[in-house]
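Preliminary data (for renewal application), adenosine monophosphate complex.
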Amino acid sequence: MENKLYIYNTLSREKELFIPLHPPFVGLYACGPTVYSDVHLGNLRTFTTFDLVYRYLTYLGYKVRYVRNITDAGHTTNDAGDEQDRISQRAQIEQLEPMEIVQKYTVGFHQVCEEFNLLPPSIEPTATGHIIEQIEMIERIIANGYAYVVNGSVYFDVKKYAEKYNYGKLSGRKLDELMAGTRELDGQDEKRFFADFAIWKAVPPEHIQRWRSPWGEGTPGWHLECSAMGTKYLGKQIDIHGGGMDLKFPHHECEIAQSVGSDGIEPVRYWMHANMLTVNGEKMSKSKGNSFLPMELIKGTHHLLDKGYSAMVVRFFMMQTHYSSTLDFSNEALQGSEKGFNRLCEAINLLNQFSEQNFQNSPDNEHDEEIKNRIESLSTNMNDDFNTPKMIAVLFDLASYVNKIKHENLVINRNTYINLQTSFNTFFTDVLGLKLESDNDNNVTSGLMELILEMRKDARDNKNWTVSDKIRDTLAALKIQVKDEKDGATWNKLR
Ligand code: AMP
Ligand code: ZN
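Predicted structure:
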């Protein structure tokens, strides 16, 4: 397989030619969600980025094993372990078992993935299902002298590690700079060095999520699960490992230290980081209160939204920005994406309306040449570190040709037509993961509701109360609320 894919590797800070360890197999690992609440649109952006990577590697012919974990073991936000972990906290608020919380938000996450057309990963391992592997990894780290036990907790010995290895090489952080930025944190007294981190944390009996270990009852440290599960399913060296930019430090930096500390092997060949989704320039996050739920966007129920947008428009909106740039969320940007998305759908519909018989087997003319070159540049752009915005710009160009074929009698030959149709299918559908809007149930519902409201208006204009009452009662039974406004009637589905 000829390979021209270049990936920006966070570790080397360069675009590198992608060479998998064991072609045609590729191991891809993306950090998954912590299932203590609904995923927000920012989380979704990161997961969509790795869905794109999975799709494009598959398109290139690789046999990809894509692992995306579920973080279902609660982790305390401080190393002291005296705070409740997030999952247990949520369980108390909702008066549920922690595993009910985990189940509820895992199901919700999967629904969002399906709605936004994210392919299921090949393996979706859970942290709680891999406690033994995590304990074994800790034992190897202790045996190698890179961790120590204090009061039933195990800490990674960063100082010792840094004598031999470069702790901070991924994130570019220097230990002395980190030191300057450290506050007096709880749990510091147990640590030998401020940068040490817990790989096993002793917890008191009232802590609901806890497991037995050689060091007593406790929970594994957050960074450990990805190291343990990545190694188990993708081997000691993973081809590509990624997550959001905010995971570079400490999560991924600690993952490297844990793997090197336990197995002496650099765990990842290409590190990829998706940049943040922002709102008015600020990172979208639950704690800042500026987060949108993906479903709120579809239904248009969030107060910052003028209206709802289909999942495919939102996906397209994300793809119009390179994954390594921040993506600022706004109504205007979404409206622009909706228009652009519809233009591409129209082009595909037109291409599907034509048939091969409409085109001759003639030699290439200048338009055939131009179109061929553009089609080639679809992969050229994707090979340049998954440059979706540039690839989409080429799709727009190609859509203009399709319009000219339809409306301005532009002549192309049969091969070019077939090539155009196949390329749209491949890049729009398989690679970008988009679906034609006409395939979408929402669209069918909107069309039907428009028709029903028109019939209702006609019935009222004609004083046909039997029909208008029937429409009103049926819609009410379906929990569809109709509001009469100046410009006509609008509707929404009550929950
Ligand atoms: P979490 O459930 O908090 O572990 O986050 C799941 C994924 O979403 C991680 O890869 C995070 O880096 C990513 N993430 C969190 N906030 C954002 C954001 N505002 N934009 C993009 N990705 C994000
Ligand atoms: Zn992770």
